[in-house]
């Protein structure tokens, strides 16, 4: 059994949070959560966000609230979250698991830096999460790298 399962953090059954009210009769009727944008079809948008000269990076509860607010701003559905507080420097690592994928973070409060990973599929816009994080972490500098994951030919 893996460590998350021992903590009760692994779902044993598939979530129905993306289920429609219309019954699904076959695999061919399943909804496709891939994104079509700018002439491309892909699984989702993956943002790597570096927050510089940031504050509040040593408070797991505040980080949890911030990432959840950011997820909602992006239009995502929150399933659960988990954060770990490190000592002695006070850094925090954690994840907000979304129906549309995840937002994860690792902070270095001693350097006023946070590395954030946002991956979302479907109709969500992960870019809308960035201003929320910038405001609540009071980041003076933000660097964003975007990747489109799972590209397929149209």
From TrEMBL:
Pathway: Amine and polyamine biosynthesis; S-adenosylmethioninamine biosynthesis; S-adenosylmethioninamine from S-adenosyl-L-methionine: step 1/1
Cofactor: record remark: Binds 1 pyruvoyl group covalently per subunit.
Recorded GO CC terms: cytosol
Keywords: Autocatalytic cleavage, Decarboxylase, Lyase, Polyamine biosynthesis, Pyruvate, S-adenosyl-L-methionine, Schiff base, Spermidine biosynthesis, Zymogen
Domain of life: Bacteria
SUPFAM superfamilies: S-adenosylmethionine decarboxylase (SSF56276)
Record PTM text: Is synthesized initially as an inactive proenzyme. Formation of the active enzyme involves a self-maturation process in which the active site pyruvoyl group is generated from an internal serine residue via an autocatalytic post-translational modification. Two non-identical subunits are generated from the proenzyme in this reaction, and the pyruvate is formed at the N-terminus of the alpha chain, which is derived from the carboxyl end of the proenzyme.
EC number(s) given by UniProt: 4.1.1.50
GO molecular function terms listed in the Swiss-Prot or TrEMBL record: adenosylmethionine decarboxylase activity
Cofactors (names): pyruvate
BP GO annotations: spermidine biosynthetic process
Residues forming the catalytic site: 101 (schiff-base intermediate with substrate), 106 (proton acceptor), 121 (proton donor)
Residue(s) carrying Pyruvic acid (Ser): 101
Enzymatic reactions: S-adenosyl-L-methionine + H(+) = S-adenosyl 3-(methylsulfanyl)propylamine + CO2
Site feature: Cleavage (non-hydrolytic): 100-101
InterPro entries: AdoMetDC_C, AdoMetDC_fam_prok, AdoMetDC_N, S-AdoMet_deCO2ase_core, S-AdoMet_deCOase_pro-enz
Family: Belongs to the prokaryotic AdoMetDC family. Type 1 subfamily.
Protein function: Catalyzes the decarboxylation of S-adenosylmethionine to S-adenosylmethioninamine (dcAdoMet), the propylamine donor required for the synthesis of the polyamines spermine and spermidine from the diamine putrescine.
Subunit structure: Heterotetramer of two alpha and two beta chains arranged as a dimer of alpha/beta heterodimers.
Protein name, UniProt field: S-adenosylmethionine decarboxylase proenzyme
Gene name as annotated: speH
